[in-house]
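Batch manifest line 226
LIGAND: magnesium ion
JOB: complex structure
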Amino acid sequence: MLQHNSRPEVGRFLQCTLPLFPRTTVNDHPLGLVFDMDGTLVDSGLDFQLIRREMGIADRQPILEAIQQMSPGEADRCREILARHERAGAERATLMPGVTDFLAEVRRRGWPAAVLTRNTRPLTLLTLDRLGLHFDPIITRDDAPAKPDPTAIEQICAAWRLPPERIVVIGDFLFDVQVAHRAAARAVLFTAGRDPQGLPGADEADFLLESFQMSDELFRWLAELA
Ligand SMILES: [Mg+2]
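JOB STATUS: finished
ARTIFACT:
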C-alpha cells in the first residue's frame, strides 16, 4: 500500500528531483510554422509575368529588387503598377482548398503559425481579414527586408522563443525555400499540383506538398520532427 503521509528521505528526494532538470534538447521545443500568403494560403490570381511585362523588366527577375535598381521616376511608375495588381489580388483572393482544415490541425497540435509575405502590410491584413485568417506574427515587406533575406525568420524565432531548427516555412516559390535554409529552418515547397520536375526550389526543399487537402503525409513528417 502506498504511504502518502510519509516524508521522503533527503537522498530519495534529491533523486526524485533530478528529472525535473533535464538537459534541454532542440526536440523539447514545439514546431512553429511560417506560411507564405499569395499562392500558398490564398489564390490571389497575381500574374507576376504580366506585372513584369507592364513594368518592362525581364522574365524571372525579382520585382521588388528590380524596382530598387530603377531611377526614382521609373520606380514610382512600377510601384503604381504593382500596387494596382496587388490591390486587385487582395480583393479577389480566395482560400486555397484545404487551408482551413490544415490550419485547424496546426492549432490543435499547439504549433504557432506566422505569415511571411513579400506583399504590403495593408494588403496582407486586408486579404487575411477578408478570409478570416489569424496569424501572429504577420511580417510583410513593410516590416522586414523581403524574402529571401532571413531577418524575418530570425524575428519570428525571437518572438516565439524557438530555435530556427524548429521552424518550418511553407511556400510556393523558390524564395520560400531559400529564406528557410538561410535561417537554418526547414522548407516545404507547396507545388499546388505543378510538376516538381524543374520547378524552382523543388530540389532544395525538404518536403513537397501537392495540396493542403492531401496533407496526411506532411503531418506525419512534421510529427517526426516534433
Ligand atoms: Mg507565394
